[in-house]
């Protein structure tokens, strides 16, 4: 599949979030980087040996950068391996994934970071980056070796799904990480308010008799996080914001000029609590799905730029962990492969311009992590996705490339067929037919 | 069975046959599975079983050759016995399984268990499980007909049928009555099923209890919510007390049982707020002196609690019979 010769993509709908360009154009890829970009013009005479790909008007955009992907490797390879996650990513137009540290063993030590990155070098279907744990063993007690893990190559620190409930520990991490300019990603959730819950508290969970989580759990923890961020001057990514109440808190924090950004999962943009339906455990997520008002507020916040980044929150879980009574089922959903078509729903529904949607999964995460990708500019890595954004698809979980098939999008009609994905100029995925 | 045309057993059996009908759904998972005419039909059939159960001979063959499996993941002597007696009186082969204490669930998921049991080909599966939605999940994986005998905090529909039957026999109707459901509504599957079925049958329902034991936005269930027993019980025809689910409380829903009884326990004084002739119900087992005073619970003039137990068998016989009729229709 690799292409050593230069490739010219012509006749594309080119979207570059860095310049805000959305229009006709093309790209020439050579030696792993973007060699030339044509916006609103034709390339001149192409050199000898340049292979031309006529895009037929399809979208050509930077490859997606997904900041939140869980794998089962190391420790639970039956769920997902780094290789299977990367293949799924490539099929979805995602060219970089950030592996979460809640593996077994946890990525809380530079040697585990090194292990992941060494494994990643043998996998060429997507770039594999990794996040390091913020605390040893993800226990929320003792700070992990943040500096050494940064040195080993981790791109940010986080305790993944586990909120750091000890405020002193949280404060120290923010303070200490500042010395390494390390970004802390934190999922705000007051664990006391969330204790024992399986669904968001409200009328629907009440009817279903599901143990519920107070809707205030997120906002309260975020209020704390922002107060401590203000005191420390660190860098914080609010991981997967889900509620209108917390958005108000986020807006106040941002207005104070803090080094604060926020992500939202594609699931919370696409589903609401009613999608739990008849105890559909594939829609059991953490954080749990919210009400429709919250979902609408999240879309508005993405449109206004209050939310910076969209993630897949890819969390593979095999059938035996999912086909259980709702409150016993493992939360989480796979999503790296469906991220782009699901995101495009917001474009087709005329909620957001295409360039803004693409920015949230390319340039915004790249800038946050200091990566060179996420843009279409000469010299940038040739990580690209070609996508027929109008092509209708019906998601069939069984056909997704993840080892686990727990997709809440199963059976859903979406628009957006990934035609080709390139990493470093190499074709790592091409649609069949 | 040997009987003559004037035999009371035959008369009761004729009444049962005349009222028998095929259950409208494959499974009975929720009280909301029934519309008003269907619920009335079920109560009529149950009524016929009440008469039958009062005969000396209580043996029928309506479920002869059928296997009824009682699958209780959660202990409940009362409900399990009720289903067992109902099944046996109808002539079914009844098997009781308690997967929590047997080898069947060691390392197995509920689905594995379902597949294993399915291979034993039960016709009717009575399921109790500690998780909401478990009966529904199981029903998707088995070929037999599933009856939800209580799933987590969700529903307990046969309890609602027996409660409605008890009310209808006491008042001659359900429609137009005011029923106050009092206590730990949050954790109560009995409350959820009763709200649904009582609404279907035309009663007006109030929920009464401390705010910590009330589901969020419960007023959207079409009920009025009261945190004060005086207003909650004012003029009520039926006072349905719920068990304070002490074992479910992970801490601090109410300060103490003493305080709970003071404000939410049913005694004569609080009951005096209800309508004249009001009846008291409780799904059992009771925490005497916590949610109900023995003085009220044991007073045959107001308490329907013993009737509820009797109606439980009849109601379950009605459900089993109509599901078996549905089974025949499906085959």
TrEMBL record, chain A:
CDD domains: DHOase_IIa (cd01317)
GO terms assigned for molecular function: allantoinase activity; dihydroorotase activity; metal ion binding
Enzyme Commission (EC) number: 3.5.2.3
InterPro entries associated with the record: Amidohydro-rel (IPR006680), DHOase (IPR004722), DHOase/Allantoinase_Hydrolase (IPR050138), DHOase_cat (IPR024403), Metal-dep_hydrolase_composite (IPR011059), Metal_Hydrolase (IPR032466)
Keyword Membrane part of the UniProt annotation: no
Matching SUPFAM superfamilies: Composite domain of metallo-dependent hydrolases (SSF51338), Metallo-dependent hydrolases (SSF51556)
Top class in the EC scheme: hydrolase
Any one biological process term the GO annotation gives: purine nucleobase catabolic process
Keywords for the protein's UniProt record, in alphabetical order: Hydrolase, Pyrimidine biosynthesis
Source organism superkingdom: Bacteria
Keyword hit for Membrane: no
Annotated Gene Ontology cellular component terms: cytoplasm
Domain Amidohydrolase-related: 289-428
Ranges of residues in domain Dihydroorotase catalytic: 57-243
NCBIfam families: pyrC_multi
Protein name stated in the entry: Dihydroorotase
Automatic annotation (TrEMBL), chain B:
All residue ranges annotated as the Aspartate/ornithine carbamoyltransferase Asp/Orn-binding domain in the record: 176-322
PANTHER family xref list: ASPARTATE CARBAMOYLTRANSFERASE (PTHR45753:SF6), ORNITHINE CARBAMOYLTRANSFERASE, MITOCHONDRIAL (PTHR45753)
Organism: Caulobacter henricii
Keywords assigned: Pyrimidine biosynthesis, Transferase
Residue ranges of every copy of the Aspartate/ornithine carbamoyltransferase carbamoyl-P binding domain listed in the record: 26-168
GO biological process: 'de novo' pyrimidine nucleobase biosynthetic process; 'de novo' UMP biosynthetic process; amino acid metabolic process
EC class: transferase
Record's function text: Reversibly catalyzes the transfer of the carbamoyl group from carbamoyl phosphate (CP) to the N(epsilon) atom of ornithine (ORN) to produce L-citrulline.
GO molecular function: amino acid binding; aspartate carbamoyltransferase activity
Keyword Transferase (UniProt): yes
Keyword presence, Transferase: yes
Residues annotated as binding L-aspartate: 106, 189, 243
Subunit field text: Heterododecamer (2C3:3R2) of six catalytic PyrB chains organized as two trimers (C3), and six regulatory PyrI chains organized as three dimers (R2).
Catalysed reactions, semicolon-separated: carbamoyl phosphate + L-aspartate = N-carbamoyl-L-aspartate + phosphate + H(+)
Coiled coil feature spans: none
Taxonomic lineage of the native organism: Bacteria, Pseudomonadati, Pseudomonadota, Alphaproteobacteria, Caulobacterales
UniProt pathway annotation: Pyrimidine metabolism; UMP biosynthesis via de novo pathway; (S)-dihydroorotate from bicarbonate: step 2/3
UniProt family annotation: Belongs to the aspartate/ornithine carbamoyltransferase superfamily. ATCase family.
UniProt binding sites for carbamoyl phosphate: 78-79, 128, 156, 159, 284-285
EC number: 2.1.3.2
Protein name, as recorded: Aspartate carbamoyltransferase
Gene Ontology CC terms, in alphabetical order: cytosol
Primary gene name: pyrB
């Amino acid at each position: 599949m690799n292409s050593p010769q230069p490739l010219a993509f012509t006749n594309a709908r080119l979207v570059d979030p860095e310049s805000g360009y959305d229009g006709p154009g093309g790209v020439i890829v050579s030696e792993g980087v973007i060699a030339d970009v044509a916006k609103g013009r034709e390339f001149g005479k192409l050199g000898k040996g340049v292979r031309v790909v006529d895009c037929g008007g399809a979208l050509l955009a930077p490859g997606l950068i997904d900041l939140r992907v869980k794998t089962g490797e190391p420790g639970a390879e039956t769920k997902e391996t780094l290789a299977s996650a990367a293949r799924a990513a490539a099929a979805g137009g995602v060219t970089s994934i950030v592996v979460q540290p809640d593996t077994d063993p946890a990525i809380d030590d530079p040697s585990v970071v090194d292990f992941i990155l060494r494994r990643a070098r043998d996998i060429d279907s997507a770039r594999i980056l990794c996040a390091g744990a913020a605390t040893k063993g993800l226990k929320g007690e003792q700070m992990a070796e943040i500096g050494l893990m940064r040195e080993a190559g981790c791109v940010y620190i986080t305790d993944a799904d586990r909120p750091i409930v000890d405020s002193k520990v949280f404060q120290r991490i923010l303070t200490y990480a500042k010395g390494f300019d390390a970004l802390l990603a934190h999922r705000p959730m007051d664990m006391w308010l969330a204790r024992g819950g399986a669904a968001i508290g409200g009328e629907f969970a009440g009817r279903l008799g599901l143990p519920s989580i107070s809707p205030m759990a997120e906002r309260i923890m975020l209020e704390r996080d922002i107060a401590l961020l203000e005191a420390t001057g660190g860098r914080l990514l609010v991981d997967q914001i889900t509620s209108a109440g917390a958005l108000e808190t986020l807006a106040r924090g941002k207005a104070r000029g803090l080094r604060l950004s926020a992500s939202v999962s594609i699931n919370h943009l696409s589903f609401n609590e009613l999608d739990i339906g008849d105890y559909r455990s594939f829609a059991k997520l953490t954080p749990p799905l919210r009400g429709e008002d919250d979902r609408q507020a999240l879309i508005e916040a993405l449109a206004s730029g209050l939310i910076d980044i969209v993630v897949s929150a890819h969390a593979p879980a095999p059938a035996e962990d999912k086909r259980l009574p709702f409150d016993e089922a493992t939360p989480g959903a796979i999503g790296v492969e469906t991220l782009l078509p699901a995101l495009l729903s917001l474009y087709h529904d005329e909620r957001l311009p295409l360039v803004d949607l693409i920015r949230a999964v390319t340039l915004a995460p790249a800038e946050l992590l200091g990566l060179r990708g996420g843009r279409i500019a000469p010299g940038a890595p040739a990580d690209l996705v070609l996508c027929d954004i109008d092509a209708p698809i019906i998601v069939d979980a069984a056909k997704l490339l993840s080892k686990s098939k727990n997709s809440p999008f199963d059976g859903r009609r979406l628009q957006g067929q990934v035609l080709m994905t390139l990493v470093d100029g190499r074709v790592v995925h091409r649609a069949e037919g | 069975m040997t009987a003559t045309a004037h035999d009371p057993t035959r008369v009761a059996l004729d009444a049962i046959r005349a009222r028998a009908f095929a259950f409208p759904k494959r499974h009975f998972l929720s009280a909301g599975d029934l519309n008003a005419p269907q619920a009335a039909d079920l109560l009529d059939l149950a009524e016929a079983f009440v008469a039958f159960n009062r005969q000396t001979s209580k043996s029928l063959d309506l479920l002869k050759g059928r296997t009824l499996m009682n699958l209780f993941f959660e202990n409940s002597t009362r409900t399990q016995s009720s289903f067992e007696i109902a099944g046996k009186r109808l002539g079914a082969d009844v098997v009781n399984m308690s997967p929590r204490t047997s080898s069947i669930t060691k390392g197995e998921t509920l689905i594995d268990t379902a597949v294993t049991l399915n291979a034993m080909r039960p016709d009717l599966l009575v399921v109790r499980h500690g998780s909401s939605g478990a009966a529904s999940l199981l029903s998707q994986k088995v070929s037999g007909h599933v009856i939800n005998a209580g799933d987590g905090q969700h529903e307990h529909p046969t309890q609602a049928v027996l409660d409605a039957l008890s009310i209808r026999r006491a008042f001659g109707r359900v429609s137009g009555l005011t029923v106050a459901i009092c206590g730990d509504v949050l954790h109560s599957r009995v409350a959820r099923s009763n709200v649904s079925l009582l609404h279907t049958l035309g009663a007006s329902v109030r929920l009464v209890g401390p705010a910590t034991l009330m589901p969020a936005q419960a007023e959207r269930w079409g009920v009025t919510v009261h945190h004060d027993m005086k207003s909650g019980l004012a003029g009520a025809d039926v006072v349905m007390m719920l068990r304070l689910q002490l074992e479910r409380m992970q801490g601090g829903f109410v300060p103490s049982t003493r305080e709970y009884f003071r404000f939410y326990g049913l005694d004569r004084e609080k009951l005096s707020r209800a309508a004249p002739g009001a009846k008291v119900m409780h799904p059992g087992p009771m925490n005497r002196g916590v949610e109900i005073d023995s003085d009220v619970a044991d007073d045959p003039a107001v308490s329907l609690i013993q009737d509820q137990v009797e109606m439980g068998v009849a109601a379950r016989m009605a459900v089993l019979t109509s599901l078996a009729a549905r089974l025949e229709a499906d085959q």
